[in-house]
């Protein structure tokens, strides 16, 4: 049994990037699907597919690499709020990742959004992870 499924999700992506894999398969949940959609919208992954016909569902993620230099689009992906220590912040304390070059994924009352969207909507929430 996994005690922190989001940390497991991020670790699978991190390990696949370090091993230069093209596709990674991850057990699905609604929170993981939301994070995957944000990573796709912001250009950190090439594509994704939700396979819900099997229980539990599976998320297939196609990782993105530079075509010439083969460097990955995801350089670092870090879990911030953990089950043992939750990290919450208001709109005034929202973090900036790499001075705005990366994103922070925030779980708010409006759903999963990035730090930039949270500033525009003027909402705070739980900091799920940093991506750069």
Describe this protein's structure.
By secondary structure, this protein is an alpha+beta fold. 25% of the residues lie in helices and 30% in strands. The protein has three helices and eight strands, in the order αβαββββββαβ. The strands form two sheets. Strands 4, 5, 6, 7 and 8 form a five-stranded antiparallel sheet that branches. The protein has a three-stranded antiparallel sheet with strand order 1-3-2, covered by helices on one side. A hairpin with a 2-residue loop joins strand 6 and strand 7 (111-114). It is globular. The protein starts with a helix and ends with a strand. The model has no long low-confidence stretch (mean pLDDT 95).
Describe this protein with a few key phrases.
132 residues; 25% helix; globular
Q: Could you tell me the mean pLDDT?
A: 95
How would you characterize the largest beta sheet? Answer: 5 strands, antiparallel
The 3D shape can be described as globular
Count the E strands: 8
Compute the CA-based radius of gyration.
Answer: 15 Å
Beta content: 25-35%
Q: Number of helix segments? A: 3
N-to-C SSE string, H for helix and E for strand:
HEHEEEEEEHE
Structural class: alpha+beta
Residues in helix, %: 25-40%
- In the predicted model, the low-confidence regions spanning at least 5 consecutive residues are none
- Distance N to C terminus: 29 Å
């Amino acid at each position: 049994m996994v005690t922190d499924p989001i940390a497991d999700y991020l670790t699978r992506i991190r390990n696949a990037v370090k091993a230069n894999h093209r596709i990674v398969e991850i057990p699905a949940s609604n929170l993981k699907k939301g994070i995957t959609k944000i990573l796709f919208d912001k250009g950190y992954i090439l594509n994704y597919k939700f396979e819900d016909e099997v229980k539990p569902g599976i998320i297939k993620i196609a990782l993105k690499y530079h075509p010439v230099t083969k460097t990955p689009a995801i350089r670092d992906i870090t879990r911030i709020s953990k089950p043992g220590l939750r990290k919450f912040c208001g709109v005034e304390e929202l973090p900036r990742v790499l001075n705005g070059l990366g994103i922070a994924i925030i779980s708010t009352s409006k759903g999963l959004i990035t730090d930039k969207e949270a500033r525009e909507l003027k909402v705070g929430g739980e900091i799920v992870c940093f991506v750069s």
